[in-house]
Amino acid sequence: MKRANDPIFWSSFGAGGMLSALLGPVLIFITGIAVPFGFILPKSTLSYANALAFAQNPIGKLFLFAVILLFLLHGAHRLLHSLHDFAIHGGPREKLWFYGVPLTLTFVALVELLLVGF
Amino acid sequence: MSGRFKPAVKTYTRPVTGGWWKENPFYIWYTLRELTAVGVFLYGVVLVTGVVSLGIGENAYNAWRAALTTWTSLIFHLILFALLVYHSYTWFKVMPKTTPQIPIAPQTIVRTGVAVTTALSLVIVAVLFGVTR
């Protein structure tokens, strides 16, 4: 039998689902609602200096990488399996896109995270 | 079509159209629950654009920040927020059905999940509020 890659994507779906359930709402509130409009938190929270310091910190770097990787894979995996509900029966071509795009985006983010230094 | 769901014997397969989920409120909520994945994915993309702009330099990063202060972005993020809140709630609601049999009441799992998420969110905002003052 051909070795299946499904377990990898199902576990990242689970991990991403859990991480986004716990942190998704508050992260969106902070970066997309509160900070840009100076509501509760000051606009300077996400200043260039602060964001750079966060991305250069090993823990901050790992956090950003994990959130990006798991959110993208969770979203894409769930959508791939939802296609079936809309009478689109995904095959290898759909798999290539629904795992290729999130992995490519994560790779781009990883390169940038490494290039900003430590 | 992949052969995964194809029955081995030639049995009658009821034709399924893409619009079945509009027929029943339960299916609409189910579909909304699955479509929260769009919100999770899009927020990941927002973070990727932020990290890339940060990597390019200060001007690019400030342009990214400026884009986040528009009304379009606010409405977009409010929708993302609503989707993620619904994802969070349903994730814990489904959890008792997906975990192995454990001697904990389903409602306890849901309530604990929602409580932990709320507490964690408040702590994170409070800590940020404290360190940025």
Structure description:
The complex is a heterodimer of chains A (118) and B (133). Chain A has 118 residues and is mostly helical. Chain A has one domain (7-115): 3 helical TM bundles of succinate and fumarate reductases (Up-down Bundle). Chain A has 4 helices and no strands. Chain A has helices at residues 6-34, 48-56, 58-82, 92-115. In chain A, helix 1 crosses helix 3, helix 2 crosses helix 3 (58-82) and helix 3 (58-82) runs antiparallel to helix 4. The longest helix of chain A is centred in the N-terminal third of the chain and has 29 residues, at 6-34. The N and C termini of chain A lie far apart (44 Å). The mean pLDDT of chain A is 94. In chain B, helix 1 packs across helix 3 and helix 3 runs antiparallel to helix 4 (106-132). Chain B has a single domain, classed as Fumarate reductase/succinate dehydrogenase, transmembrane subunit (3 helical TM bundles of succinate and fumarate reductases, Up-down Bundle). Chain B is extended, with a radius of gyration of 21 Å. Chain B has 4 helices and no strands. With 133 residues, chain B is an all-alpha fold. The chains are: A mainly alpha (118), B mainly alpha (133).
Give a brief rundown of this model.
The complex is a heterodimer of chains A (118) and B (133). Chain A is an all-alpha fold and 118 residues long.
